[in-house]
Amino acid sequence: MDLPIEKIENELIAVLSSDKFKLDINKFDSGALMIDVETENRFFCIQLTKSYIGVSEITEEDPGFSSVPNKYYEDIGKFKKEINELFNLDWK
To answer: Which helix (H) or strand (E) holds 79?
Structure first.
């Protein structure tokens, strides 16, 4: 089952649209999307593909920047729960 990348992208950008977050969005020819999120001295990379959503926190110990995320989700509900916990949001 293909994930609705555009719908997830639009909702995610809407919930992260505040002065608390700095976003950098990169779209790829494959249809994949990478959203870098900086907040409160923390940096995350969110990858959206047709088959999964990946989340990585970039730290000095784990500099990341890999095509393989630290966590990945095939279920939008579980992804939303992770985003809510990471960023203290109420994304439904």
So the answer is: helix 76-87
Instruction: Kindly report the three-state secondary structure assignment for every residue of 6-42.
Output: HHHHHHHHHHCCCCCCEEEEEECCCCCEEEEEEECCE
What would the pLDDT profile of 28-52 be if each residue is shown by its tens digit? Answer: 998 889 999 999 889 999 999 999 9
Residue 20 in contact with residue 1, Cβ under 8 Å?
A: no
Residue 30 makes CB contacts below 8 A (sequence gap 6+) with 49
Phi, psi dihedral angles at 48 (to 5 degrees): -115, 120
Residue with tokens 């950098």: 24
> Which pTM does this prediction carry?
0.89
